[in-house]
Amino acid sequence: MSESKSVFIFGYSGHAYVIIETLMDAGYKIAGYFDFQKAEKNPYSLKYFGFENNVDIQNIVQDHLVFPSVGENTIREKLIGFFELYSLNQFVAIDPSALISKTASINVSTYIGKHVSVNAQSKIGKGVIINTNCVVEHECTIKDYVHLAPGGVLCGNVAVGRSTFIGANSVVKQNTKIADNVIVGAGSVVVKNIHEKGIWVGNPAKYR
Ligand SMILES: CC(=O)SCCNC(=O)CCNC(=O)[C@H](O)C(C)(C)COP(=O)(O)OP(=O)(O)OC[C@H]1O[C@@H](n2cnc3c(N)ncnc32)[C@H](O)[C@@H]1OP(=O)(O)O
């Protein structure tokens, strides 16, 4: 394992644990974590480097890698803005068990979890979470800061807008478009385009 593959993670709670295990399985070394305060639990015995806004970030991180380990979309967006401001080295974290088409594109600071499939010609933005066991079928477009919770299925040619959250085990029918900042409840089935931000739940998914 080379020193150049050390990763600083930002955020250290439940979602971070999943990221850490993916990174370790993929052969990365975790250099430590930043968070607004020292974590109460430290199951991976990581070194705390402080709150990113209060430290000389470039001096600590140097040319190592950084990754946003927070499930909440707006916090992840802020972290990525911070990474961009300081020109920190972002990358894509892909669990070794995931199946990614060679013709799919995935932007930086995106997490692809265990047993995920991303199929042909799909385009995934930056800071996205495609969580455990999700299926992203052919030609899907997923904008920045989306979170697709575990078990979600996007059928072919689905488009998901920026910062949208799609709850666990939800299904989105082929050729459907979902707007920015939508929340789709767990176990929902989206069969028509969603043009309006807000919470949509049920089968078929309805505005709540
Ligand atoms: C690794 C991880 O853990 S990633 C995270 C995975 N987590 C998820 O996928 C959970 C996603 N969140 C949900 O599904 C939530 O229930 C939300 C966001 C849809 C709604 O949350 P809240 O706004 O707090 O709604 P609340 O719990 O108060 O329920 C309001 C009503 O909506 C209903 N409702 C809530 N969620 C759903 C749902 N997923 N499907 C159908 N109905 C729902 C409730 O039964 C309730 O109905 P009532 O008014 O008739 O009693």
From TrEMBL:
Q: Residue span of the signal peptide, if any? A: none
Which InterPro entries did the record assign? AcTrfase_PglD-like, Hexapep, PglD_N, Trans_hexapeptide_repeat, Trimer_LpxA-like_sf
Q: Which Pfam families match?
A: Hexapep (PF00132), PglD_N (PF17836)
**Quick one: which residues bind acetyl-CoA?**
H147
* Annotated binding of substrate, by residue: S13, G14, H15, G71
Please indicate which residues carry the site annotation Increases basicity of active site His. E139
| Protein name as catalogued | PglD N-terminal domain-containing protein
Per the UniProt record, the source organism is Rhodonellum psychrophilum GCM71 = DSM 17998
Identify the taxonomic lineage of the organism of origin.
Bacteria, Pseudomonadati, Bacteroidota, Cytophagia, Cytophagales
